[in-house]
Amino acid sequence: MSRIRTEPLGLDELLAAVCHPGAGGVATFLGVVRDVNDGRAVTLLEYEAYGTMAEAELERILAEIAAEIPGVRVAATHRVGALHIGDVAVACAASAPHRGEAFEACRLLIDRIKARLPIWKREHGPDGPYWVGWEDARCGGEHGPGARHGHGPGARHGHAHGGHPHGHGGSGA
Q1: How far apart are CA 111 and CA 113, in angstroms?
Q2: Of 121, 161, 163, 165, whose Cβ has the fewest other Cβ atoms within 10 Å?
Q3: Distances in Å between the alpha carbon of 136 and those of 9, 48, 113, 139, 151?
Q4: Which residues pair with 94 in a beta bridge?
Q5: HEC letters along the chain
């Protein structure tokens, strides 16, 4: 199953991956594109990723959580490309013998995806496109440490989203 994809996401595939006879609890999470972020209107989101790197990191995250919480199964998919308001950007599912572990695993899953997955987010709104959370401490002058400005994934310097590439603090999850 490709976990980073351009096609719309749903839960059926994820539920099939985590459900089993010993699962007494199943938790899911959908990160959905909303119409406002930080008080600014959002009309469209674009996610970009280096696919093989993002897939590999997601596999590491899934394996970590499965190793940390006994009896848990986890699955996730993330969408890339242009997403409209209401589209699902990320889908997560976790099962465990009991609900507490399922909730914990699902929460860990989305939090680690947001913190570590190398996916970049650009919002579109009335003022044009904007790379979300893009910061570069190596830029000088008015773009000094902590400055936010419009470098994208193809930029020659910088990192994405204020220390984590995913940048889901905004309008998609």
Answers
A1: 5
A2: 163
A3: 32, 18, 21, 6, 8
A4: 27, 74
A5: CCCEECCCCCCHHHHHHHCCCCCCEEEEEEEEECCEECCEECCEEEEEECHHHHHHHHHHHHHHHHHHCCCCEEEEEEECEEEECCCEEEEEEEEECCHHHHHHHHHHHHHHHHHHCCEEEEEEECCEEEECCCECCCCCHHHCCCCECCCCCCCCCCECHHHCCCCCCCCEC
* Residue 128: closest CA among 41, 49, 37: 41
pLDDT in tens, 91-144: 999 999 999 999 999 999 999 999 999 999 999 999 899 898 765 555 554 544
- Tokens standing for 139? 């830029």
